[in-house]
Amino acid sequence: MGATERWPQAPAAGTEAAMEILLIIRFCCNCTYALLYKPIDRVTRSTLVLHDLLKHTPVDHPDYPLLQDALRISQNFLSSINEDIDPRRTAVTTPKGETRQLVKDGFLVEVSESSRKLRHVFLFTDVLLCAKLKKTSAGKHQQYDCKWYIPLADLVFPSPEESEASPQVHPFPDHELEDMKMKISALKSEIQKEKANKGQSRAIERLKKKMFENEFLLLLNSPTIPFRIHNRNGKSYLFLLSSDYERSEWREAIQKLQKKDLQAFVLSSVELQVLTGSCFKLRTVHNIPVTSNKDDDESPGLYGFLHVIVHSAKGFKQSANLYCTLEVDSFGYFVSKAKTRVFRDTTEPKWDEEFEIELEGSQSLRILCYEKCYDKTKVNKDNNEIVDKIMGKGQIQLDPQTVETKNWHTDVIEMNGIKVEFSMKFTSRDMSLKRTPSKKQTGVFGVKISVVTKRERSKVPYIVRQCVEEVEKRGIEEVGIYRISGVATDIQALKTVFDANNKDILLMLSDMDINAIAGTLKLYFRELPEPLLTDRLYPAFMEGIALSDPAAKENCMMHLLRTLPDPNLITFLFLLEHLKRVAEKEPINKMSLHNLATVFGPTLLRPSEVESKAHLTSAADIWSHDVMAQVQVLLYYLQHPPISFAELKRNTLYFSTDV
Questions:
Q1: How far apart are CA 541 and CA 489, in angstroms?
Q2: Which value, to the nearest 10 degrees, does the dihedral of the CA atoms of residues 601, 602, 603, 604 take?
Q3: How far apart, in whole angstroms, are the C-alpha atoms of residue 46 and residue 67?
Q4: What are the residue boundaries of the C2 domain, all occurrences included (predicted)?
Q5: 184: CB partners within 8 A, 6+ apart
Q6: Which of 13, 290, 347, 631 is the most buried (most CB within 10 A)?
């Protein structure tokens, strides 16, 4: 039986229905808005009829393409009407009449021609499309320009051993990234002052524009985690992300779609134009994730210290070497802040490790659980790091009402069948700035440095010498040394033995995680009842670093060092040379002089509680003018040629001692 005999009514009904739809659409397009309702209702009902006709019409029937065209036109027409009603439309119709759903979209940094480009990436049910927002003149609709696309049937993730070494993309200097953060915070403060003083809207808009420019540059230049995808028919593409969590999300979303029966295809220029044109209306992420795009009534986030205890995890199907990392958002992107130790060969790791994480306008905490890989052949050639497997990941919002309490808040994050138990509490910036003298003067923490060195009959406190020696012995090449948080319980244990002058200190140091030792050294300086560079000289340091004349600045900054008490000066010079040696290993440990100045500057200069009240502006403004200056003071000395104690003291005779 032929096609005509099996479906006797299909040709006539199909042709008639298609012609009717085309006539209705033509009529609708020429009608005024007030006359659209009845024709649209007819189009809606006829579209359903077309769906049924296509189901019962053979693909090789001569009317099949006409029915397809009619269905596509009617669906697109209805979609264009619905856009005004529901702007969150997430689908577009393909030329074959199929629905192409938008699954995920977001801004990513692509490495193109050895430079960084900010792209808007769209993941549809069958294709990944990378686009750039076109520059348009005022009053015109914004549009995207497609840079490239890959059908998901052709998309593969190269394994570490398969991937080719990427073209060298020079990382943005750390000090320039930190400078951007400082500028952003300074501009934020200026905007707040203008608003408080009811300043002119033009002035505020100018400041916001400058702030956006700096935030955009920071967002573009800060990501370093490689995410490579490959078209099996040709080219590879490389993105740089700031978070392993984000990389995992994109990979998982693509792999989930690839489990379906996908077919390879090539889009015609018209089809590509239609798909790219739909991106503007389909997108779910409308703005670049910078704070200048936030509304005034949005939460500024938390500033201070988040204490997190990672207790344990359950739900692993087989034994593995497991650890967790913690990420928080800062300046519009996520940063890895802490890492537990590896719990070996277990299905129920029990870490019970506490971390102190500095928050800078943070709103979210992420926990990622990894299986440690010890196979050195599995190295990512994009960054020469061994790739560990993500077993699960989860995220929680940092609700101020929940975390801003004195008590610990315990919670569980569920991730891919795995449950990670953790506790957290938050210390505001106001509280974290306090320097509290120890009531017990027999220890070292919270005790004046002159008292400790006199008691020990030493020039540099024993705790400083031992921590520095241990870091230089086995931690100088540790990635993120002094930046990555040590386990808080380990730091407290070291604090206790140093305070008690326990004879087992050296044995304990040799067995302790190096980040805990680095954390103990930072804690010692942070808990001094008076900063190492003293309260009395703090205003002079702030004035000296602000001098524009190099010779005047040199004279002033050296004169201030000469004015320090001997124990403070000798300890400062000892620490200075150590930090310079750490920075010499920057290609390995990723800690530049500027990174180290950022970590230690506020710790060595921040005034004691009584003095600091005059200098603090807002608890939320962690990158305040004072903090920037504190970083710059230490950076000045770190970048200075070696400074000799004997030479400084010899020159004291030639200078006034008044400051």
A1: 35
A2: 60
A3: 11
A4: 284-413
A5: 211, 214, 215, 218, 291, 331, 623
A6: 631
3 state DSSP class of 245:
helix
Measured over the CA atoms of residue 210, residue 213, residue 215 and residue 218, the dihedral's sign is negative
Helix 514-526 × helix 593-605 angle, to 10°: 40
> Could you count the other beta carbons within 10 Å of the beta carbon of residue 268?
10
Q: Give the tens place of pLDDT for each residue, 128-156.
A: 999 998 876 555 667 899 999 999 999 99
Burial class (CB in 10 A: 0-12, 13-18, 19+), 210: middle
- Torsions phi, psi for 288 (to 5 deg): -60, 135
623 contacts: CB under 8 Å, gap ≥ 6: 181, 182, 184, 185, 186, 360
Residue with tokens 């004691």: 608
Residue 32 confidence (pLDDT): 40
SS3 493: helix
* Closest by Cα among 603, 485, 554, 634 to 175: 634
- In sign, the C-alpha dihedral spanning 234, 240, 243, 244 is positive
Q: For residues 541 and 633, is the Cβ–Cβ distance under 8 A?
A: yes
Distance, in Å, from the CA atom of 183 to the CA atom of 176, rounded to the nearest integer, reads 10
Residues 284, 86: Cα–Cα separation, whole Å: 12
Q: For residue 386, list its beta bridge partners.
A: 379
Q: Rg (Cα) of the chain, in Å, rounded?
A: 31
Q: How far is CA 160 from the centre of its chain?
A: 23
* List of residues 6+ apart from 81 with CB closer than 8 A: 36, 40
- The whole-angstrom separation of Cα 353 and Cα 421 is 11
Q: One-letter amino acid identity for 384?
A: N
**Exposed / middle / buried, residue 65 (Cβ in 10 Å: 0-12, 13-18, 19+):** exposed
Q: What distances in angstroms separate CA 269 from CA 130, 281, 282, one per listed residue?
A: 15, 20, 20
Residue owning tokens 């956006």:
212
Burial annotation 527-544 (CB, 10 A radius, 16+ → b, else e): bbbbbbbbbebbebbbeb
Please report the beta strands in 363-455, taking only residues with DSSP state E, as ranges in sequence order.
364-371, 379-380, 385-386, 389-397, 409-415, 418-428
Residue among 481, 181, 217, 221 nearest 330 (CA) = 181
pLDDT digits (tens, 9 = 90+) for 32-74: 444 544 566 666 667 777 767 776 788 778 887 777 767 767 6
The residue assigned the tokens 């200190």 is 505
pTM score over 0.70:
no
Give CA separation, 518 vs 178, 340, 464, 521, 559, in Å. Answer: 21, 15, 10, 5, 30
In the chain (659 residues long), the average pLDDT of successive 10-residue segments reads 41 56 56 49 71 74 76 63 46 71 94 91 96 72 89 88 56 77 81 78 87 91 92 91 93 94 90 91 87 65 87 94 93 86 94 88 92 74 68 88 77 91 84 67 90 94 96 93 87 92 87 94 94 95 94 95 95 97 92 91 83 43 68 94 86 50
